[in-house]
């Protein structure tokens, strides 16, 4: 059974850094694999912050809103997805989730990432990050 388990959340001061980890077990990596980090705060829609997928190798990207501060990476050997978050702001306080899935005809990883859903069918329980001054 595929399982995603996030860790690394907690309380951090404004301007600080946090690295989130997502251990992904029993997940077969294929050329259609999509993995990502998403976040949700009360009253807001779920938002994608980091995406990883395969196209002639692993490709990672961060959402424009956090690109200068957040970095997603994948250690395939450890089956772990990371999200390095720097220069944290109060607005970054949220529940952070990792998710995985497989692209299909008409549903690409990037499209699903922008929609914060789509082919991302496998989700972890989330880890809370709280940024305060």
| Alpha-beta content class | mainly beta
- Overall shape: globular
Instruction: Compute the number of helices.
Output: 1
Largest sheet: 7 strands, mixed
Q: Separation of termini?
A: 41 Å
Q: Name the beta content range.
A: over 45%
Alpha-carbon Rg, integer = 14 Å
Number of strands: 11
Mean pLDDT over all positions: 95
Question: Which segments are poorly predicted (pLDDT under 50) over 5 or more consecutive residues?
Answer: none
Helix content: under 10%
SSE topology string:
EEEEEEEEEHEE
Please give a structural write-up.
The strands form two sheets. Strands 2, 4, 5, 6, 9, 10 and 11 form a seven-stranded mixed β-sheet that branches. A four-stranded antiparallel β-sheet has the order 1-3-8-7, with no helix packed on it. The chain has one helix spanning 109-115; strands at residues 3-7, 10-13, 18-25, 33-40, 47-54, 58-62, 70-75, 80-85, 94-102, 120-123, 127-132. 5% of the residues lie in helices and 52% in strands. The longest helix is centred in the C-terminal third of the chain and has 7 residues, at 109-115. The protein has 133 residues and is mainly beta.
């Amino acid at each position: 059974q595929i399982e995603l388990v996030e860790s690394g959340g907690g309380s951090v001061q404004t301007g600080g850094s946090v690295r989130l980890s997502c251990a992904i077990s029993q997940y077969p990596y294929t050329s259609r694999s999509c993995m990502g980090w998403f976040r949700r705060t009360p009253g807001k829609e779920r938002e994608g912050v980091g995406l990883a997928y395969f196209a002639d190798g692993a490709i990672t990207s961060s959402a424009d809103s956090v690109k200068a501060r957040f970095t997603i990476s994948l250690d395939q050997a450890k089956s772990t997805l990371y999200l390095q978050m720097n220069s944290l702001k109060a607005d970054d306080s949220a529940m952070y989730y990792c998710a995985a899935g497989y692209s299909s005809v008409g549903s690409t990883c990037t499209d699903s990432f922008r929609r914060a859903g789509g082919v991302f069918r496998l989700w972890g329980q989330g880890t809370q990050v709280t940024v305060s001054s």
